[in-house]
Write a structure and sequence with these properties.
Pfam family, one: PocR
Radius of gyration: 30 Å
Number of helices: 15
Keywords: DNA-binding, Transcription, Transcription regulation
Organism: Saccharibacillus kuerlensis
Protein name: AraC family transcriptional regulator
Order of helices and strands: HHEHHEEEHEHHHHHHHHHH
Shape: rod-shaped
Distance between the termini: 36 Å
Number of strands: 5
InterPro entries: Homeodomain-like_sf (IPR009057), HTH_AraC (IPR018060), HTH_AraC-typ_CS (IPR018062), PocR_dom (IPR018771), Tscrpt_reg_AraC-type_HTH (IPR020449)
């Protein structure tokens, strides 16, 4: 399964996620931290409250925080949903699990708030308590002012925010898996034909260039689709012109001049033009434009590729020129053609 080789670092673009995490912490007033499956932090602590900073900087109290984090994550995994609980200082924390193919790869930890109605915590589990009352009593004098400054929320507000974080994590995971699945399927498919491997096209592939991967994969799959079409009618019988036709059919994303085609065939442009017209019954410019519109129609009919991308992949200098050329041959625009074809 694809989830077997994914870590939370691959699912979350951590540089972008940290910025979003900071914004979420600012808006929700919750402190937020992302950890891997071992409980190790993979992001900085966004919006960490002064109370928790003081507690975590205390070598006597830090182990209790770490145990709460670990236990909270495990409980979230067990229930496969956000787990809301009380830490060892009876403040609210939330663990939102990140799970792929039943495999726990990390969690988004949030919280560091007090309940506006303490009675609302009656059904919440205090995940860890200490029997060392003396220790807590000694530390309290230095912590009580920080405790008073903790944000206060209703239980319903906390539930709403935890559900929002869970939905956001699910969306990120789904998008990442979809893109990884496309890449994985392409690699498998490319091993059976002449289409190059994704790793050859995108060395050093990471989740950070997913948009680039999507565009490149779409381009190559589109080219593979067009190559699968019956193009025998476009093949020539004249051996002199064969290099030009082979190049044209294998470089659909280029706009190749007549002069370059003549050079490929080792003949003069004028002689190439005469031979080409005799072979096809059309001028070179008319033939290539008609062929590109034929390919464009195939992509419009069988893919959801944007018109601007189709224009680029077929070697048109700009989308406006592509639309103008398409309308010249089909009497309607590419958008209208796609709309009526798929109706």
């Amino acid at each position: 399964m694809i989830g077997e080789h994914l870590s939370i670092q691959k699912i979350f673009d951590l540089q972008k996620w940290e910025r979003l995490q900071d914004s979420l912490a600012s808006v929700t007033k919750l402190a937020i931290l992302t950890v891997d499956y071992k409980g190790n932090a993979v992001t900085r602590h966004s919006g960490c409250q002064s109370f928790c900073q003081a507690v975590r900087q205390d070598e006597d109290l830090l182990p209790y925080c770490q145990k709460c984090d670990s236990r909270g994550g495990l409980e979230a995994v067990r229930s496969n949903k956000p787990y809301i609980y009380l830490c060892h200082y009876q403040i609210i924390d939330i663990a939102v699990p990140v799970i792929i193919d039943d495999k726990y790869i990390g969690a988004v930890m949030a919280g560091q708030v007090r309940l506006s109605d303490p009675s609302g915590s009656a059904d919440l589990e205090q995940i860890l308590t200490s029997k060392n009352k003396k220790l807590y009593s000694e530390k309290w004098e230095k912590l009580k002012d920080h405790y008073a400054n903790l944000p206060v929320m209703s239980y319903q507000e906390i539930v709403t925010i935890s559900n929002m974080l869970s939905l956001l994590c699910s969306y990120i995971v789904e998008e990442a898996l979809n893109k990884n699945l496309i890449a994985e399927m392409f690699d498998k498919a490319s091993g059976t034909g002449s289409t190059p491997h994704l790793s050859d096209i995108l060395p050093g592939y990471t989740m950070r260039n997913l948009e680039h991967v999507r565009k490149e994969t779409t381009r190559i799959l589109a080219d593979a689709y067009l190559n699968s079409e019956d193009e025998e009618s476009e093949r020539c019988t004249n051996p002199v012109l064969k290099p030009a036709f082979d190049y044209l059919l294998s470089h659909k994303n280029e706009s190749v001049s007549l002069k370059k085609m003549a050079e490929l065939c080792h003949i003069s442009p004028s002689y190439f033009s005469r031979l080409f017209a005799k072979e096809t019954g059309e001028s070179y410019s008319f033939y290539t434009a008609r062929l590109k519109i034929k390919w464009a129609k195939q992509l419009l009919e069988n893919t959801d590729m944007p018109i601007t991308q189709i224009s680029s992949e077929l070697g048109f200098n700009e989308p406006g020129y592509f639309i103008k050329t398409f309308k010249k041959y089909e009497e309607i625009t590419p958008a209208v053609y796609r709309k009526y074809y798929k109706t």
